[in-house]
């Protein structure tokens, strides 16, 4: 008789032990501590120290080296990021993770600094070094000491608006004669000018341009500008200099030739939004799309991919460029396929009109997910069909099938997979961390992809993403002696007694 035993061994952790690199050996004289299986302490005597101080000194060290993400500056994102980490028995900092954060861009910036920490003096218990978990707040504040906020009231105003409003006025009033220009003509002009204390435009000069006829028409129109509201400082009116660039593409309209604003901006009154969020939401969306395009069991390479594009006034993306190191050109093509599926953005608005907006995103692949919550830190853990992870294990046990191809080839062993329970309860980001063979990997991926919806976990009353790790053991024991004969049933994926 041949029996099939499927052992589903489940465990949950934020970061899979199987995916971790072996810890460096402790210095001579220190006890060897298993950093993969021993849970860190929350208290020690003494606690870990940093440069002779405690966590407050480490907070200062982090703040001094913190680089504010440009994306967050543009979007005006600020707030506190809470980071948890472990000081190992040899003083190294490991297992850094974000507990709370106002935006993914700030999370990445905070973790980048924490992970570069010098070694600490480890905490001790009974005189022996031990692992200790700590957490610190990291402050992102746009109003940095020594800087003054920009005061728009100090700048001249054009018909109640600003420089972009004036640019759009120029485009509405410039004349392109059909005796000189034709539909489809393209060009660009860079112009400098100033607005004096009386609100008059002076010193108009086309400093650079692609075509002198374009330059003449733009310069002539700017010189005919109506009066501005002049700038004032300490009750004194002052002159203010400006520079403007016009990107032109002529079209034929009811009133003759004209050009819309074809400049791709990097600043606007209202910045573009992706699914109601910042470009950080776009990055997470791309990560999930790439995961869905990968073959089951395929590993994600550790690579940084740069994605550049322009968001058009209708919300579509143009000028998409995806670049990566030459040895990862194939993976870059996969990322491009994912980006091509992007839904419409909410476009940027400047001067009361929808404008083109240029975005550049650096996507770091092959890193362990840092924006998922640790189940132990949640107010409410995810629920599966009225239960929690044990209930999901039972569902896996009833659904998984031992592939006939693997049985016939004698392939067996443990498959370790990670997945994320999204804020909407769906299962995503399925990744194979360890597997004896792609045949078994595909079966685990298939089952996880078919998972019914969970009830998502929550923290502070808000649903959050939660990452789990699940090992599945495939074991086919030696066929026992007996009178009954067993045969494999392909439809069920299991052995049954032959009639």
Could you tell me how far the N terminus lies from the C terminus, measured between alpha carbons in angstroms? 13 Å
Question: Mean of residue pLDDT?
Answer: 78
Percent of sequence in beta strands: 25-35%
Write down the CATH class of the largest domain.
Answer: Alpha Beta
Q: Can you identify the CATH superfamily of the largest domain?
A: TonB
**Can you count the helices?**
10
Strand segment tally: 24
Helix content: 10-25%
How can the largest sheet be summarized?
5 strands, mixed
CATH architecture of the largest domain: 2-Layer Sandwich
CATH fold assignment of the largest domain: TolA/TonB C-terminal domain
What is the overall silhouette?
A: globular
Give an overview of the whole structure:
The chain is an alpha+beta fold and 499 residues long. The chain folds into four domains: 134 residues, TonB (TolA/TonB C-terminal domain, 2-Layer Sandwich); 109 residues, TolA/TonB C-terminal domain; 111 residues, TolA/TonB C-terminal domain; 87 residues, Fusion Protein Consisting Of Minor Coat Protein, Glycine Rich Linker, Tola, And A His Tag, Chain: A, Domain 2 (2-Layer Sandwich). 21% of the residues lie in helices and 30% in strands. It has ten helices and 24 strands. The strands form eight sheets. Strands 13, 14, 15, 16 and 17 form a five-stranded mixed sheet that branches. Strand 14 and strand 15 form a beta hairpin. Helix 6 packs across helix 7. The radius of gyration is 30 Å and the shape is globular.
What is the structure about, briefly put?
The chain has helices at residues 55-65, 70-75, 104-114, 163-173, 212-223, 279-293, 329-339, 389-399, 404-409, 438-449; strands at residues 5-7, 79-87, 93-100, 123-125, 128-130, 132-140, 186-195, 201-209, 231-233, 236-238, 240-253, 256-259, 264-265, 303-311, 317-323, 348-350, 353-365, 413-421, 427-434, 458-459, 462-463, 466-475, 486-489, 494-497. It has 10 helices and 24 strands.
